[in-house]
Specification:
- The chain is an alpha+beta fold.
- The chain is built from eight helices and four strands.
- The chain has two domains: about 80 residues, Glutaredoxin (3-Layer(aba) Sandwich); about 120 residues, Glutathione S-transferase Yfyf (Class Pi), Chain A, domain 2 (Up-down Bundle).
- Helix content is about 50%, strand content about 5%.
- The chain is globular, with a radius of gyration of 17 Å.
- InterPro entries: Glutathione-S-Trfase_C-like, Glutathione-S-Trfase_C_sf, Glutathione_S-Trfase, Glutathione_S-Trfase_N, GST_C, Thioredoxin-like_sf.
- Homodimer.
- This is FtsZ-localized protein A.
Length: about 230
């Protein structure tokens, strides 16, 4: 049994849930609120950040990129032509570049601000940073996302998938970030039809179903969040 320590609106955790779905693996999900600094979780990973994957007691794999590489190394060949990290070095570079773009740049400039201000701070005690959202940061994220949406539109309009001719970790990394923003209703889909069509293809995959079922106490997703025909 594979166990994944995650948070429902942690974009990095969502990336891992998507890749596990593509590998046909249904993990045991344990929700972790990292601001609690829970001792048993810190023993697993002293960095104290989600996601952390445990395959058996001696195999603890922290962080989205490390988990992705681990699954490619241990199970990638079995996927054949559906492998999520391509075989040739140049294609692997492009997938890793885009994973880094969405997992770091998009996250820093958009997802982190929106999720922290609109979600995490609602559930955090004031002494740990909780409280009312900083609307300046929310507005900055809403502005920044347009740059990223233009880039997604460019990639999706010039390739079959974001990194090339087949679905890869790059698509899952981008979709994971966008899914969090989409949950909050902050993706201007009406302005970016090409990006929307790409996202609808990823969103329709079986691996996405568990993400679309995510709910948080006192917080409802945007109306189009679970709509495959949005």
């Amino acid at each position: 049994m594979i166990t994944l320590y995650h948070h429902p609106l942690c974009a990095h955790s969502r990336f891992v849930r998507l890749l596990l779905g593509e590998y046909g693996i249904e993990p045991q999900l344990i929700e972790e609120n990292v601001h609690e600094r829970r001792r048993d979780f810190l023993i697993l990973d002293p960095a104290g950040q989600t996601p952390v994957l445990v395959e058996h007691p001696s195999t603890v794999v922290p962080g989205p990129s490390t988990i992705a590489e681990y699954f490619d190394e241990t199970r990638g060949l079995a996927l054949g032509k559906h492998r999520l990290l391509p075989e040739d070095p140049l294609s692997r570079i492009e997938v890793r570049r885009l994973m880094d773009w969405f997992g770091q740049k998009f996250f820093r400039e958009v997802t982190d601000w929106l999720v922290t201000e609109k979600v995490y701070k609602r559930f955090m005690p004031r002494e740990r940073g909780g409280g009312a959202p900083d609307m300046e940061l929310v507005r900055a994220a809403r502005s920044n996302i347009r740059t990223h949406m233009r880039y997604v539109s460019y990639l999706a309009g010039s390739r079959k998938w974001l990194a090339g001719d087949r679905l890869s970790y790059a698509d899952l990394a981008a979709a994971a970030q966008l899914s969090c923003v989409d949950f909050l209703g902050d993706v201007p889909w009406e302005e970016y039809e090409t990006a929307k069509l790409w996202y609808s293809r990823v969103k329709s995959r079986p691996a996405f179903r568990s993400l679309l079922a995510d709910r948080l106490p006192g917080l409802s997703p945007a109306p189009v969040y679970a709509d495959l025909d949005f």
